[in-house]
Amino acid sequence: MADRIYLKVIADFDITGYMRPRAVTWKDGRMFRIEELREHRSAATSVNGIQRDCYTVVIKGQVRRLYFEKDPSNFTITVGRWYVEKEA
After folding, report:
1. Predicted TM-score (pTM) above 0.70
2. Which domain holds residue 40?
3. For residue 28, what pLDDT is reported?
4. Integer Cα distance of 11 and 34 in angstroms
5. Which residues touch 19 (CB under 8 Å, ≥6 apart)?
6. What string of DSSP letters covers the chain?
7. Which of 54, 73, 75, 82 could bridge 43 with an S-S bond, Cβ 3.0-4.6 Å?
8. Residues of the chain with pLDDT under 50
């Protein structure tokens, strides 16, 4: 399993509840606008049973995968964390 870097993400929600990430902020405070959302799909469930969504985004002209992992213990609302996988 790749190392994860958890991020703060600014997201919008449309009237149907669709979540669209708009910007990411690193731990050091640097913020980057998401220039384009190319794809959104469900990602494979992780080994510990956590469901994930994968957003293919463009940040500073580079294609990146941004993940949203859903908390399986919270069934009443969607709670989760955003992360990117550390590059090798």
Report:
1. yes
2. 4-85
3. 95
4. 10
5. 11, 12, 13, 68
6. ---EEEEEEEEEE-TT--EEEEEEE-TTS-EEE--EEEEEEEEPPPTTS--EEEEEEEETTEEEEEEEEE-TT--SS--EEEEEEPP-
7. 54
8. none
Q: Report CA-CA distances (Å) from 38 to 23, 32, 46, 74.
A: 14, 16, 23, 29
Number of domains, the chain: 1
Q: What is the largest CA-CA distance in the chain?
A: 38
Is 39 in contact with 53 (CB distance < 8 Å)? Answer: no
**Neighbour order of strands in the sheet with 62-70:** 31-33, 19-25, 4-13, 80-85, 62-70, 52-59, 36-43
Distance CA 79, CA 88 (A): 29
